[in-house]
Amino acid sequence: MSDSLTSFEAARRAVTALAGGGVHDVVVAPGSRSAPLAYALAEAEAAGQLRLHVRIDERSAGFTALGLALGGKRPAAVLTTSGTAVGELLPAVMEANHAAVPLVVLSADRPEELRGTGANQTTQQPGLFGSHVRCAFDVPAGEDPGPFVARAVREACGGGAPAGPVQLNLAFRAPLVPAGDAGAVPIERHVEVQALPYDGAAMPSVSGDGGDGAAAGSPEALPPEARSAEDLQEAGRRAPSAPAAGGPVVVAGHGAGELAAVFAAHLGLPLLAEPSSNARFGTSAIAPYRLLLGHLGAGITRVVVFGRPTLSRPVAALLARTDIERALYLPEPAAWFEPGRRSERIIDNLPELLEFAGPAAPGWLEAWRSAGAAADAAIATLLAGEEGLTGPAVAEAVWEQTDGFLVLGSSNPIRDVDLTAAPGWHPLEVFANRGLAGIDGTVSTATGIALAAGVPTRVLLGDLTFLHDVGGLLIGAGEVEPDLQLVVLNDHGGGIFGLLEHGEPATAARYGPAVERLFGTPQQVDLAALAAAYGVAFERVTTMQGLETAMERPLRGRSIIEVQADRQSLRALHSRIQDAVAAVLAPEGAERTGTQR
What CA–CA distance (Å, rounded) separates 166 from 154? Predict the structure, then answer.
């Protein structure tokens, strides 16, 4: 790969070809895998080459691009990240097909090596739109996309045949943000485009036909809270930085089920269980496991995987290690699994799985329990001292207060629960749309879950996830109304991106306005007015006591609890959490091993 293009270099060439082909307007929906194109487009807008429009809802983004193409009588483009975001464009693509509108779909994708492995937000995107597009190209990561873009735009414009939509599926590898020496144009917003109207003769020539998890960032240390390390150490028992001997662990991903918990308890192994595994209980479950891997991970000798892990980079890094044995329990076919695509040993029966796991060294589980208890106490002490409500504190309260069904929105809410939910309590059942981990359709999904069994259902979701499917609040007259409560953590934008590479100090310093616009996607929607419009009970809370009181009321009918939070301080909060855990696990000065997302 030494001679291949970086993701940002490839993105710049794609944008150059877009502008050269007469595309003046591009609609961007926020996403991580599409970040290289988003940065390159922001540069191009700053240089006056094209104009950007940002929308948080991909379906709306697609139709906005359709309208721009219709009104401008020239091709327009829409950019989405991978997964269900691409599928959201289908209605606009179908309309563009039958109305002969030149719509260019830019769908970002994972690289070839991640497809068919169950990697988060990865599906078969090439050819997704079938006969509704004039052409579709799958551009491999590292390859120059310029010729593909040029040909696709030409096909969109017709060239003797009816105009219509095209798809450019562009794969990108990490890093997904520009390098420090990228020589970027200073990015401002809303620069007026000075280009001339589209002329087909300006289309670049085509030199060839089409053919082809997230890397952890290493943010610089943020200023620690005034609280001293000694105070944090008193929050819980000290734990050794590493046990004397190691052993296996059990990883329970989405859909693992209670068998994973029984298996771990039977063998006395640490259980690292995601919330939607429905295995986060029992004597072996470790709550803040992802923060412990940097301290105890070196002792792991084997990994037994149940379900499909999708949430955290430390677990993804653990499963990518080649110095330990790994097995995936797959007793029956799984929709996300393609044979030969994953590196774990595949085991389909419990006797063989028990033999593979084997026993742990004496004290192995206790070392994890001790470290987990110390980390839990340190996190609780830190969160109790924070001003206002924070995502992790709200997540813990929601978990503890829910005895019916719990639905978790993607992005930060499910990760906050993963960090703080105590295994001593478990809701009746936990649901999450982790097939492709999209934020779309969450309100409607939760409504269906609540109606299916008549079980009171609580949802924890972010403001963008809520707004993305606010239409799901519309229930026709005479229709059955579910017992459904939506706890909306409103930090006025996309908080998760501040915890990824885009929130790193160096990136923020160089691209601050663009990062906030393209990834933070700030919004100031009046949620109370929305609730009133749909006839849904509404309450805004500003304290933990207020939140707990609101959740203690009988869950009857539909209601919304809005929790105001601060997105700008989120990265610093997570840095303090990591420092707090490090202080009690390695009090003599262990360094953090990277972002623990």
Answer: 10
Q: Note the pLDDT of residue 187.
A: 52
Looking at residue 227, its pLDDT comes to 30
Residues of the chain with pLDDT under 70: 1-3, 180-245, 587-597
Which residue type, as a one-letter code, is found at position 150?
A: A
Q: How far is CA 580 from CA 137, 188, 353, in A?
A: 48, 37, 36
DSSP secondary structure letter of residue 276:
G
pLDDT at 72: 81
Phi, psi at residue 482, to the nearest 5°?
-75, 160
Q: Say how far apart CA 29 and CA 35 lie, in whole Å.
A: 10
Contact residues for 508 (Cβ-Cβ < 8 A; gap 6+): 502, 515
The pLDDT score that the predictor gives to residue 178 is 86
Report the alpha-carbon distance of residue 478 to residue 73 in Å, rounded.
Answer: 44
Which among 465, 468, 458, 389 has a CA at the least distance from the CA of 428?
458
* Rounded Cα gap, residues 437 and 122, in angstroms: 9
For the chain, how far is it from start to end, CA to CA, in angstroms?
27
Q: Which two tokens stand for residue 415?
A: 């990760």
Domain membership flag for residue 191: no
State the Rg of the chain over Cα: 24
Residues 91 and 138 grouped into a single domain: yes
Q: What is the pLDDT of residue 245?
A: 65
pTM, full prediction? 0.75
DSSP 50: -
pLDDT at 229: 31
SS (H, E, C) 100-149: CCCEEEEEEECCHHHCCCCCCCCCCCCCCCHHHCCCEEEECCCCCCHHHH
Contact 510, 502 (CB under 8 A): no
Tokens linked to 256: 């693992």
Q: What pLDDT sits at residue 305?
A: 98
Q: Please state, in angstroms and rounded to a whole number, the distance separating the CA atoms of residues 249 and 246.
A: 10
Check residue 211 and give its pLDDT: 33
Closest CA to 120 of 294, 276, 354, 9: 276
Is 211 among the domain residues? no
Expressed as residue numbers, the domain containing 539 is 389-565
Same-domain status, 322 and 404: no
Q: In residues, how long is the chain?
A: 597
Contact 391, 461 (CB under 8 A): no
